[in-house]
Predict the structure.
Amino acid sequence: MTAPEVFDQDDEDGLVLLRRAEPPAGAVDRVRLAVQLCPAGAISVAPRPAHSAVAGSPETSAAP
C-alpha cells in the first residue's frame, strides 16, 4: 500500500492490480519503493522510452 493511487490488491487472491499505468509525478518515488518492497517481486517499473518523433509531427513531416 505504498502507492495506493497506482497499485491495489485483489481481496480474493491477493494479486496486484494496476490502477494507473503512468503514476502521478508525486508518486514516482513511492512506486519505486513499492517495487523494492514487494515480497513476491510481482511488480516492476519499465524504463521510459527515449523521446522519439511521432509520424506526422513537424520533425518527421516532409515539406510539400
Observations:
- Residues 59-64 have pLDDT under 50 and may be disordered.
- Residues 28-37 form the longest helix (10 residues).
- The chain is about 15% helix and 10% strand.
